[in-house]
Amino acid sequence: METGRRAFIGSLGAGAAGAGVARAAVLQRTPVEGIEAFAFDAYGTLFDVFSVTALCDELFPGQGDALAQRWRAKQLQYSLLRSLMGRHRDFWLVTEDALVYAARSLGLDLTARRRERLMEAYLSLAAFPDVRPGLEALRSRGLRLAILSNGEPRMLEAAARSAGIDHLLDTIISVEEVKIFKVSPRVYNLGLERLGVGRSALGFVSSNSWDVNGAASAGLITFWIQRAAAEPPEELGFAANRVVAAITDLAPLVAG
User: Fold this and answer.
1) Residue 256 pLDDT
2) N or C, which end of the chain is more exposed by having fewer CB within 10 Å?
3) Residue 120: which domain range?
4) In terms of domains, do 163 and 79 share one?
5) In terms of DSSP H, where are the helices of the chain?
6) Residue 23 in contact with residue 243, Cβ under 8 Å?
7) What is the CATH number of the domain that holds 65?
8) How far apart are CA 51 and CA 189, in angstroms?
9) Measured between alpha carbons, how far is residue 86 from residues 76, 78, 95, 108, 196 in Å?
10) CATH at residue 211
11) pLDDT score recorded for residue 6
12) Measured between alpha carbons, how far is residue 241 from residues 114, 220, 223 in Å?
């Protein structure tokens, strides 16, 4: 059902996609002055959270897509709810709680071994194809690169090593330093503090429009990786400074 829903949304957005792509193309031709560093969201931006779908389907035939989709949705919901509740729990545990809920809601028998295998998959998520070449192009321009993520440090470090991009990063910044999840301004300010740059010198990059809105609300220069042409931006009032289709589109946007 979820796959059909995505196809349906894609067909609805096909007509509007042309205007969105044209707008993005105009934005892409305008360099951004003064950028010294980029901070990247991790999940959905660098790492494909739905690369766990194959394992979900192996363990629960015919239910893989539904489990992966519900797991991700609940993971995000729990992070937002815990921030509002003031009851922080690190992202590894939030991810596990979301998995348990998702399996129970689908009536799946999540044994201890199955839960362990699915959680371990989060340590080796596949990187999107544009990630490594995109980061390499930015490094070649002398820019500092970081991850700024909800993820727990061990999760992020393992995923970066598995994807072969750890050597391209100057640092990995986790919300565990401030004990609250995005979209709290404290998270985005943490990126500025850790990288030691001003707001006009840090570009924040995410494929999640809600995350881009959060960073823009906090005053950062933002870049939205619009991985699906038919995906509309969130209606939160803080649009991205630039919209691109892939991380490899970022280097040409950096002036100098």
Assistant:
1) 60
2) N
3) 49-124
4) no
5) 2-28, 53-59, 64-85, 91-105, 112-121, 131-140, 153-163, 185-195, 209-217
6) yes
7) 1.10.150.240
8) 30
9) 15, 12, 17, 31, 28
10) 3.40.50.1000
11) 41
12) 42, 9, 6
Q: 210 is written with which tokens?
A: 């809600």
Same domain, residue pair 130 and 184: yes
Q: How many domains does the chain have?
A: 2
Q: Enter the tokens of residue 182.
A: 């995005």
**Residues 139 and 94 both lie in one domain:** no
Q: Residue-wise over 90-123: b if at least 16 C-beta within 10 A, else e?
A: bbbebbbebbebbbeeeebebeeebeeebeebbe
Low-confidence ranges of the chain (pLDDT < 50): 1-27
Backbone Cα Rg of the chain: 18
Pick the closest to residue 209 from 224, 191, 230 (CA basis).
Answer: 224
Closest CA to 112 of 100, 123, 128: 100
For residue 52, what are its two tokens?
């766990």
Residue ending a domain, among 106, 124, 142, is 124
Question: Does the predicted TM-score (pTM) go above 0.90?
Answer: no
Q: Is 41 a catalytic residue?
A: yes
What tokens were used for 90? 């690190």
The reply to whether 129 and 23 lie within a common domain is yes
Q: Is residue 210 part of a domain?
A: yes
> CA-to-CA distance for 198 and 204, rounded, in angstroms?
12
